[in-house]
Amino acid sequence: MSVEDALLYEDAGVYKTLLESTRAIPWKLDWATLGFAYIGPQIEDLLGWSASSWTTVQDWADRIHPEDRERVFNFCVAQSQAGMDHEADYRALRKDGEFVWIRDVVHVVRNDDGTPNALVGFMFDISERKRTEERLLDMQRELEELSYKDGLTGVANRRRFDMMMTVEWRNAQRLRQPLSVIVLDIDYFKQYNDHYGHLEGDECLKRVAKALQGVVRGQRDLLCRFGGEEFVLLLPDTDEAAAMALAWRCLDAVDKALIPHVGLGPGKRLTLSAGVHTAIPGEHDETTPFIAVADRRLYLAKERGRARVVSDGGLV
Ligand SMILES: Nc1nc2c(ncn2[C@@H]2O[C@H](COP(=O)(O)OP(=O)(O)OP(=O)(O)O)[C@@H](O)[C@H]2O)c(=O)[nH]1
């Protein structure tokens, strides 16, 4: 062996040692035969399959998660044919049946005429990164959900109501369908707080929300806490008679919850008042005056003695 050869041989040994001591897994695929010319022995630590079990590109494809396989395979083949370096994330099958997220970073070695000669690359274990990404996504989803919920009662909040009101208003306009709202307000809640204390007042709001939620049946019906001790029910595709009946069921449900309100006198129970409004919104109608009508009816119900529902037909 010449000195140059000996040095080269020594260098190759150094490179091999270097390659095989990285956490990334090096590999080489011969393009003509689509066979693995080399894969780092570290692959066995990561996936459980020995280096010698990676013979052809088919072994690689077979060890990709079925949901990722077609996408990754087609992408890598197209990029390689085009002579483009690329990278792909996918779940690789471990020998024990579990999956590991891998990032494969691929360099295309080209012949003089530009056609691929070989692919060389590194596989990186990115499972930890993926787990972090998924945790972040979960947190984002959770935050998004929380931002539409009332913190105390768990029902939808005002923000959600405003959003759904806009959506359902447009639907009702387009389909020429009736839309109803019921505005519900606890009677003498100031006295409740004064008598039982603010914390008990909070508990009472939770019980009322629970009772009202039990009444809501329709898939698109939405109960929300409008603020303070006021709740609103948004009822798409619901005519006035049905909305009235539902308003009474709400009052009934709270009555049946048997929430004492002895601040008003011995044996007294908590009651609600409600205002109902229904309309088939015209093309240029706005939501604010629509809700204001239900609000005015609620105050009429209060004026007329509370524990009752007022709708278009007046006092019921
Ligand atoms: N505990 C508790 N009380 C609240 C909350 N939000 C609003 N309130 C109380 O609800 C009471 C509402 O009082 P008012 O608007 O005078 O109404 P009301 O006493 O129910 O009288 P009517 O509606 O006329 O029957 C006030 O005392 C508020 O402090 C809350 O989140 N928790």
From TrEMBL:
It catalyses: 2 GTP = 3',3'-c-di-GMP + 2 diphosphate. It comes from the Bacteria. Residues 177-314 form the GGDEF domain. Its EC number is 2.7.7.65. It is an enzyme of class 2 (transferase). Residues 86-138 form the PAC domain. InterPro entries: Diguanylate_Cyclase (IPR050469), GGDEF_dom (IPR000160), Nucleotide_cyclase (IPR029787), PAC (IPR001610), PAS (IPR000014), PAS-assoc_C (IPR000700), PAS-like_dom_sf (IPR035965), PAS_fold_3 (IPR013655). This is diguanylate cyclase.
